[in-house]
Amino acid sequence: MKQVVQNYRSGELALLDVPAPGCKPGGVLVRSAYSLISTGTELMKVSEAGLSMVGKARSRPDQVAKVVQSVATNGVPATYRKVMGKLDSWTPLGYSLCGVVEQVGDGIDDVSVGDVVACAGNEHALHAELNWVPKNLYTRVPDGLAPRHAAFGTVGSIALQGVRRGESQLGEVALVIGLGLIGQLVVQLLAASGVRVVGVDPDPARCELAERMGAVACGDPGSPTVAASVAELTGGHGADQVYLAAGGTGNEPVELAARLSRDRGRVVDIGKCSLDLPWNAYYEKELDVRFSRSYGPGRYDPEYELEGRDYPIGYVRWTERRNLACFLDLVARGRVDVEPLVSHTADFDDAVETYRSLEGGGLKAVAVLFRYAGQAPEAAAPELALPAVRRGAAAPSVARPRKASVRLAFVGAGNYATSMLLPHLTGRDGVELSTVVTTTALSAANAKRKFGFTEATTELDAVLDDPSVDAVFVVTRHSSHAELTRRALLAGKAVFVEKPLALTEDELAGVLAAVEESGNDRLQVGFNRRFAPLLQEARQRFGDRTGPANLRYLVNAGRLEHGSWYLQQATQGSRFAGEGGHFIDTASRLLGADPVSVYAVASPGGEDLQVVLGYPGGSTATVSYLTNGPAGFPKETLDLMADGRALRLDDFVRASVYDGRRRWVSSRLPKARDKGQAAQLAAFVRAVRTGGPMPVPLESLVATTAATLAVRTGLASGTPVTLAAAR
User: Fold this and answer.
1) pLDDT for 84-127, tens place per residue?
2) Which of 138, 165, 192, 383 can pair with 722 through a Cys bridge, CB separation 3.0 to 4.6 Å?
3) In this predicted model, which residue has the larger pLDDT, 403 or 704?
């Protein structure tokens, strides 16, 4: 089998062919599917191996002390031979993986051959194709959890044990210093526990990632933002707990911890940083300094780790193994999201090159995974079945009489509703604004006054139970779209829901189940760009095509403002999940079909995406969704080429079509760009009033939503996702 090893004397890394381990009693033999590179611990070890002998001695004074003691006991020659022999040997790397049980040793009855398990230990969960793992260092992976995510189990347990040592309580404020892999996981675990978190790291990308993962604010160690945020959140008292998740030899982390802690606060050391505690600062505040020992109780205890002797749960609630199982459960239930932390996935055969790229700085990463051939379930290209659209299986179709006017109700009256939708409906002939529903009474009253609603309420049932309401607009935060749409469809209302229709496959299936149960398919999603007059004219001038087309869509999404609810990915989905449907729908409109495959690649940190969509007949569309562009650059530019012709759309301000002989260029719009909101609303109102078909077929809305959701699946697998028709 193959295994990653390093010579600590020379620093050489290698992927060696070594004998496969046997399956001893008290453990299992596991074939690796994914293993995780700890970009902190492992890279520190790799870097130390490249130092001179003097450098190695300086980095490990504890080992130097042992050498001195050995010289006193055994003499210089014997000690030299012992030290050189140890240094000039291959040593393993790795300690966190997920794999499949290949053989079960005597005394093991909790797993079987073929089970997927997460494994821990720097002697048992190595970067190797096969590992023997003792009982207390593995746990079964929950159903539905991807192996690539389960490979985070050990590192997640380290973060989890650190949070346990901090004894966090609801409502407290924590400071996390160091936003590498461990720090990012600590942020998520604290946020999931009801703790408000401020992060510190010199890397702006890591600060932004931590804010997306749940931190209230993040900044550079010297930034006034950090101190101001802690002061604001704590009323000037200081953080209740500080987590040191940083490395390096500087003393700045412990000094910062002292400055920003409250009186008698807790300081938890998880990483490996200098701990030259400033006595006065720590004494005057009587700070409680705690160490978090790796994955939890049981670590470094041979009887626990090697002999499988568990600690009674009544005395030790959270052992090493129980922490591992707990973290996997949190990931499986969506309380912790590790996918945004994956900066790169490399084939195991490329392990040495990957380490060298990390060490040299060519690959900047929070977390890197090794993928092993033939074992990971994700190795094959995933196939997602498009949910079947069935109408009226349990109820007759909703009656669609022609109406002189339609009565509309709004659920939600936030910025988008009040700036981009309601102005196009207020005062329109044949439209009555019936009821506005919001979560707060004052916002409902404001919307009623400003736009002329007949009623304002905070009770949704008042709208759903009102037979005079013809259509419901769902304009709330993303996490509620699917459920509100489902309820409105079951109530027999026509529904206009802002994108996205759903954040998960289960939510999408729930909407379609409501269509089938009620027979009501009167649904429109706010994909307004296909209705933009400029795009419509350019498409008409481009004409029909006969061959495959290639479309390129560049989206300069830009940075989000601090505090934006779009950063709440755990509840509101990723930015692309919320906005990407716009661009996929526009591409589908121009190509005249729905996508059949999706391939996605993310930049380190997961902010920037390249999404390649495959269409019937060989057409493709590439959506580049980028956040690092300049603010003054246009947000959306689009190019389409087919049959010797080209179409260009510049941010819905100007369009042009070339056919090789002549060129059409639109006049620059005299006012603000028109992205189709008014035309879309007119089409929806007309469909509701006349009883005619909805502006976009339901099957197309489903296909666009499924393709948007497939981006996350594709990022998780690293392979294209096929969108197959439901069987």
Assistant:
1) 555 557 888 999 999 999 999 999 999 999 999 999 999 999 99
2) 383
3) 704
pLDDT band at 4 (very low <50, low <70, confident <90, very high): very high
Superfamily of domain 530-676+707-724: Dihydrodipicolinate Reductase; domain 2 (3.30.360.10)
pLDDT, residue 442, reads 81
Task: Tell me what pLDDT residue 571 has.
Answer: 61
Q: How far apart are CA 31 and CA 374, in angstroms?
A: 10
695 cis-preceded (ω within 30 degrees of 0):
no
Q: How far out from the chain centre does Cα 396 lie?
A: 41
Residues 6+ apart with CB under 8 A from 515: 389, 390, 391, 489, 521, 523, 698
pLDDT band at 565 (very low <50, low <70, confident <90, very high): low
As a CATH number, domain 2-152+302-379 is 3.90.180.10
The torsion angles phi and psi of 701, rounded to 5 degrees, stand at -60, -40
pLDDT tier at 669 (50, 70, 90 boundaries)? low
**CB-based burial, 75-102: b 16+ in 10 Å, e otherwise:** eeeebeeebeeeeeeeebbbbbbbbbbb
Residues 67-83: what's their mean pLDDT? Answer: 62
Distance, CA of 205 to CA of 203 (rounded, Å) = 5
Report the distance separating Cα 54 and Cα 453, nearest Å. 78
Distances, alpha carbon 376 to alpha carbons 153, 372, 593, in Å:
16, 7, 33
Residue 714 sits at φ, ψ, to 5 deg, of -65, -40
Q: What are phi and psi of 602, to 5 degrees?
A: -115, 150
The rounded distance, in Å, linking the Cα atoms of 38 and 33 is 16
Residues 6+ away with beta carbon under 8 Å from 412: 437, 438, 473, 474, 475, 476
- At the top level of CATH, the class of 406-527+677-694 is alpha beta
Give me the residues paired with residue 553 across strands. Answer: 623, 638
Do 181 and 367 touch, CB atoms closer than 8 A?
yes
d(CA 693, CA 521): 10
pLDDT digits (tens, 9 = 90+) for 46-69: 555 454 554 444 445 555 566 556
Beta bridge partners of 176: 199, 243
Cα of 624 vs its chain's centroid, Å = 18
Q: 82 with 39: CB under 8 angstroms?
A: no
- For residue range 614-647, what is the model confidence (pLDDT) as tens digits? 998 889 999 999 988 888 899 999 999 999 999 9
Q: How confident is the model at residue 307 (pLDDT cuts 50, 70, 90)?
A: very high
The amino acid at residue 440 is T
Backbone CA torsion sign across 481, 484, 488, 491? positive
Residues of the chain with CATH 3.30.360.10: 530-676+707-724
Are the C-beta atoms of 194 and 240 separated by less than 8 Å?
no
Q: Which superfamily does CATH assign the domain made up of 155-291 to?
A: NAD(P)-binding Rossmann-like Domain (3.40.50.720)
Residue spans in the chain of domains classed CATH 3.40.50.720:
155-291, 406-527+677-694
